[in-house]
Design a protein that fits this description.
- The chain is α/β, with parallel strands linked by helices.
- The chain has a single domain, classed as P-loop containing nucleotide triphosphate hydrolases (Rossmann fold).
- It has a seven-stranded mixed sheet with strand order 1-7-6-2-5-4-3, covered by helices on one side.
- Helix 1 packs across helix 2.
- The longest helix has 12 residues.
- One of its GO terms (biological process) is tRNA threonylcarbamoyladenosine modification.
């Protein structure tokens, strides 16, 4: 699936499209340059999922948990980890295999820990306002 997000007004529709594409898959990784809009899209996904908590990047805590009507949503930001052991230390397995939605920024830092199958969301900044979003099923399909 590919779509173009023209501006911030298109974020809710994009978030719904990502969740619809994901279906029953609970692990969604986000790939894109710094400033491409990964965290902004994750905020929109949480909003359309019914999260009322303030959604922010867990850059220093590695993982944030948000409550939604369908259960917890886990938001990871692995940008600052220096060693894969940090992912082990937070108990990544309990999150990744919980059956709850896991939204993962900077997944390349923990690539060997990702579940066998996941949803890959690629964000490309086409201009200051426009983004191209591509979703695909990825992993050992």
């Amino acid at each position: 699936m590919q779509l173009v997000i023209q501006d911030l007004n298109g974020l809710s529709a994009a978030a719904e499209a990502v969740l619809s594409f994901a279906g029953d898959h609970r692990i969604i990784i986000f790939d894109g340059e710094m400033g491409a809009g990964k965290t902004t899209l994750i905020k929109a996904i949480c909003a359309v999922s019914g999260v009322t908590d303030i959604v922010s990047s867990p850059t220093f805590s590695i993982v944030n948990e948000y409550e939604s009507p369908k259960g917890p949503i886990y938001h990871f930001d692995f940008y600052r980890i220096k060693d894969i052991r940090e992912a082990y230390d937070i108990g990544y397995e309990e999150y990744f295999y919980s059956g709850n939605i896991c939204l993962i920024e900077w997944p390349e830092r923990v690539e060997e820990l990702l579940p066998e199958i996941y949803i890959h969301v690629q964000l490309v900044a086409d201009s200051p306002d426009q983004r191209t979003l591509t979703c695909s099923l990825a992993g050992n399909i």
